[in-house]
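Deliverable D4.2, example record:
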Amino acid sequence: MKFDFVKVGACTPKIKVADTQFNTLSIIENIEKAYSSGVEVLCFPEMAITGYTVGDLVYSDVLLNGALDGISKIEHAVKGKDMLVFVGAPVKKDNLIYDVAVAIDKNGVIAFIPKTNLLSYDDGYESRYFTYASDINQTIKFNGRDIPFGKNIIFKDVKNPLLAVGVEVGSDLFSPLSPSTKHAINGATLIVNCGCLEEGVGKREFRLSAIKAQSKKCACGYVYSESGLGESTTDVVYAGHDIIAENGKALKESKLFESSIIVSEIDLGSLAFSRSKAFKNCENDGEYLTIETHVDGKWEDLTRVFAKSPFMPDDRDEILRRASHILDIQAEGLKKRLEHTNAETAVLGLSGGLDSTLAILVVVTAMKKLGRSPKDVIAVTMPCFGTTSRTFLNAVKLAKALGVTLKKVDIAKAVERHFKDIKQPQGVYDVTFENAQARERTQVLMDIANMNGGLVIGTGDLSELALGWATYNGDHMSMYAVNASVPKTLVRHVVNYYAGISKGKLKAILVDILDTPVSPELLPNENDNISQKTEDIVGPYVLHDFFLYYFVKKGYSPQKIYFIACSTFKGDFKKETILKWLKIFIRRFFNQQFKRSCLPDGVKVGSCALSPRGDWKMPSDAVSKLWLDSLEDL
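Output generated by the structure prediction step:
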């Protein structure tokens, strides 16, 4: 187990109804395959040893004894392997038959978990054959040993207590009070389900949505294995739909009507981080038996795929829907502030860059919601030493295309006068040279807002706030910051969405802005070309947004972020490059907190924001040493 990832698998083996010998061999063959892949927790379907569709044959001792013999053979196959296997079978206890999941680890069979909620409607006849699980844990004799038998059991790994496995069987998941909810409250971080649900129109979506929702509600990993090829098709068919999910997200899903093993890694550390916030008021009931187990798969690389841009969905259509929604949220937040303050105008600096472009699109949208003219938006372009004709002209063209009021204020002479006043040497392009321009621009915007009864709208984004890439009391300050919770990688997609719904000149301008390198344009340009590219200085925003998401939202350690970043960006960045920018991210994130401690108001649009009044509360003098030291061994 690495960085609290546990490798899990769900398998639908080929079976023959009532042929326990064939089914046992098929199960063992798949156990060997899974073990060689490093799987640490493996789940097979409900009644996998006999087949779910045996009907009244389940009353036969011949079948039941065949199932017990199969369990013994599987036990022998698992012995000595550092893995935990769950397989479904019918088992007789005190002359009653139970539908159980058998738990087997390196020491043999360690528990039988009977089904709690038996199907007795529609196509379900389970209550005809099986007995409901008792509320009290008991024991059962198996191969001369007393084995725990009950539904209130959790399996804990002796080396990593974050791995705590609870079990439910089949339709237990779909009951109003599913056992997995109780398991989670009592500490289970991973739920396995030896499942079976017949296939039909809409069933795939039903299973998937139910499992994702349950894993989200319980802040857990969920491994679901379902009966498939070989089950009787007398009245229905079974598709073998296996699913691995975590905290509301499907990580892996099998193809229907195939016999296969799906494998992924459940992030137990992230689940623990979520639970430390969400499970404070959940108390266990003390009825649970904890059984110690040991898993330790020999695996090196992640099979799980992490999105390079975690703030965005993977699906292109969903990205467009999300972008539209984000723009709407931003505009609604600003609309309320403009209404509340009776602002006559909204004033913002328009540079021809991505952030100010998104900001003016938001402001124009807010004015439209208010039924007001875009002329009430005052866009101010403030060229200075580093401004290129490309960005300046794009700012002018954009303002005209949107129909807003445009003002041009050349700040070069004012800044030069300021340099003389403070005795800043000529030709010294230091932080004073840069910040004086940013503060002059903010002063201009504030004064124009005062002259026109307006509010200054901030344009800086979430990524810049995380890195402190803003001039304190310069572009860091505004009266309402519409982009404050939008990361740089997402800014681009929202602007791209707007370009997609635009036509003519506006569309062409937005496309060119999207193609312009990100730059504060504070240093003199070279032959009218941008000489100061932000990502050359602070690093690629695609990496920084990745670091930010997993540091703030998932609580990952720097080493764990590095581990998944190397896997995610393999082929894009060298490991040493990732490490370099990760160290810079951590150093800047800590050192620049003082800028975030006094942020202006701004609406939260997604899962992450750094406002001191919201998601992130951190002292400005917190020290980054522990986090940076943890990277020194890499």
